[in-house]
Structures are given as C-alpha cells and as structure tokens.
Amino acid sequence: MILPSSKTTPKTTLWKEAGIPPADILLEQLAMRNANRWARLDVNHPLVRRILQQEHEIQYATHPGAATSRRTAMKSARLFRNAALAPTAERPRLIPKRFSSAIWTEDKEHRPTKERQAERIRKWSQTQTSMVVYSDGSKTERDTAGFGYAVYRRQQLITQGCGQIGKGEVFDAEIKGAVEGLRAALAHQRPMEGITICIDNTSVIDCIGTTAPPSSQMAFRQLQKTGDAHPGMIRVRWCPGHTGIEGNELADQLAKEGAPLGT
User: Fold this and answer.
1) By C-alpha distance, which of 179, 97, 94, 75 is closest to 133?
2) How many CB atoms lie under 10 A from the CB of residue 254?
3) Pairing outcome for strands 234-238 and 156-167
4) Fewest beta carbons less than 10 Å away: which of 107, 200, 219, 237?
5) Residue range 219-228, pLDDT digits in tens
6) Which residues are in the RNase H type-1 domain (predicted)?
C-alpha cells in the first residue's frame, strides 16, 4: 500500500510549501493582536474594568486565601495571560472633540513647500524677539525613541535638554520634546512674553490644533491644557528639518543623544 506524500511528509515542510505559518505561530500572533488591542482600550471599557478588578482581587484582597486567589486566577487565566503579552502603555481615553484656538497653528491647507518654509523660518528667526522652542525626535535601531529641545531668546540659547521615552515612534518623541521644551521655556518666561514652538513634523503640528490622537494622548493633552491656561501666548510653526536652521539642527542632535539614554 502506497500512502500519499501528505501522510508521510513532516507537517512543517507541508506548511512551508503551502505558505502557511505553523499553528503555534498563528495563535501567538492572534494573542499578541488581542493583547495590543486590550492595552489601548479606554480605562472605562468593560473588559479593562474586569482585568483591573480581577488583578485587585488577587493582589490587594484583605484576606487573600490561597484557594480564593487560585480560583480567581483560574477564572480569568486566559484573559490575564493574553493581557500580559503587551507591554505596559498609556491607555487612551475617550475624550470630546476639541474646538479651541488657544494655541495658534499654521493652516495645513495652505502649507508652503519645504524649501520656501525653511527660508521663511530662517528670516523670521533672525528678527524674533520672543522665546522660540525647537524640538525634535529620533529613534534607534533598538526601537528606543528620544527627544531633544533647545530654547532661544533673541537668537541666544537659553537652555536645552534631551531624554528617552522608551520604546516608541519618532511621532511620540516629537510631542514629548515639545512638551518638555515648553516646560523649560515657561521656567524662563518673562511677563506677557510669547512662546513659539518650532517642530519639523507636520503630523504632530496638525494633532496639536485638534483633538488629541490615541498615540501619546496624555502628552498632547498636557500641551493643549497649557495653551488653554495661557490663551494666545503659544504658537506652533513648522520648521522643516535638515535645512540648516540652527535651532532645529541642535534639537535634532540632542534627540539623537537622548534616544540611547535610559528612561
């Protein structure tokens, strides 16, 4: 009796020829997708409440008997196991739409070319008398992201700084740099002095002027709340990167120095 090759060929070889990953890898990918989705649910989502409640029952019960803890853990073992696959991250909140003009941002519908905007910023920075914050973000091959900022007044460097946000994207590091740069500028601000934040990432600028996105939502809301507390004082402008503008080049260098640092 001659059996078909599918009966004698190893399963891994069949999966490879068919272009199908092994079942354990498929299941692992499904579990990771679920874990990432759960990690980004609103804190008031029923599933998140269940996870937090069960964790509280196990870890902070007044009299956590062994049987009670074991029974509670077994009841939600699969839920806990999957949720633990995703790294700890900031949970975005369901927030209302933002309709505020407290922070001035450039109109994205009439944004000029990179070369023209760079020339505008170069000329503008030479005559600016208020404070200017240049911020930037960077990312390493290990997926750690860093930010850098430089604060100027009348073309003179006042303060600078850098740091790391852990694993993340340049987008997240950019807004963190803007927040930290604004905080540093406020510490050196004179009465009624305006502050302009120059960022080379237009996506970050567009998100500052509207509802905070799920990614780095807390940082965006923090910057927006600062603007709401000082209406009309903060402006955000696009400063194209790698165009020879001193403040942007310094912020870029600081971001690259901050990316490998520890959090």
Assistant:
1) 179
2) 24
3) unpaired
4) 107
5) 999 999 999 9
6) 127-260
